[in-house]
Amino acid sequence: MTTLLYDGSFDGLFTAIFEVFEYKYKEVEIVSRERFHQENIFAEIHEVITQETKSERVLNKLEENIGKSGIHELVKVFLSEEPDLEQIILSAVKQSIQYPKENILQNYADPDILRIAKICKSVSRERHRMTAFVRFEKMQDEVFFAKIDPDFNVLPLIRKHFNDRYQDQKWMIYDLRRNYGLLYDLETCDFFYPDEKIDLKKYQEKFHDEENQYQKLWQRYFFKTNIVERKNLKLHLQHVPRRYWKYLTEKW
Hints:
With 252 residues, the chain is an alpha/beta fold. It has helices at 10-22, 52-80, 85-98, 111-133, 155-165, 200-204, 209-225, 233-239; strands at residues 2-6, 28-32, 44-47, 137-138, 144-148, 171-175, 180-184, 189-192. Strand 5 (144-148), helix 5 and strand 6 form a beta-alpha-beta unit. The longest helix has 29 residues, at 52-80. The chain is elongated, with a radius of gyration of 22 Å. This is TIGR03915 family putative DNA repair protein. Residues 85-250 form the DUF4130 domain. It comes from Chryseobacterium caseinilyticum. Pfam families: DUF4130.
């Protein structure tokens, strides 16, 4: 067994996949250095150095076989943070090379391909809910700030949505679980990586003077327009699961 250690990046993973074929490894596992715990003392360790040229060669070949939409599905698997995501993606790449004229991502009889389909469905659902349930709060510096805590690493998937929709104001979206975020400054929309996690207690002290008033107004509006006799909690939870309530001002 050969263990390929990579830096945890998307390009790093596809560099590792390239080297699986380059060195003709048979029994392999690909693991990010962050999650590596050596259990098999007899395993050979191969350190992967990320190279965009190698990554691009694999991705270009994949695009020929499964198209850009297929690569996007593999991106979702990568962002799912599943423990065995590397092995699932490697399996898909191997099948694509073995059957270049077929869209292997439609072969649901294969257990790995079926896993990919299920993971993509879950990640897509989480992405959709993040675009629906994000709530911005106005800060003293006129920046609108939103905090999220998604089950999957969907921030890269919602970047275009918010960049296209909110171009007339500065905003930030911060992932509490992964300690990074998106920042739009009216010109560019880039990722940012703070050295330390944002202190939410101090963060609330930096609200704009208007913010608390707007929140109270929205809560009052929500309360007044609610019809108690027509309350259907079961249906409500189907559309707005309880774990998303922490984002919603009207639920506080």
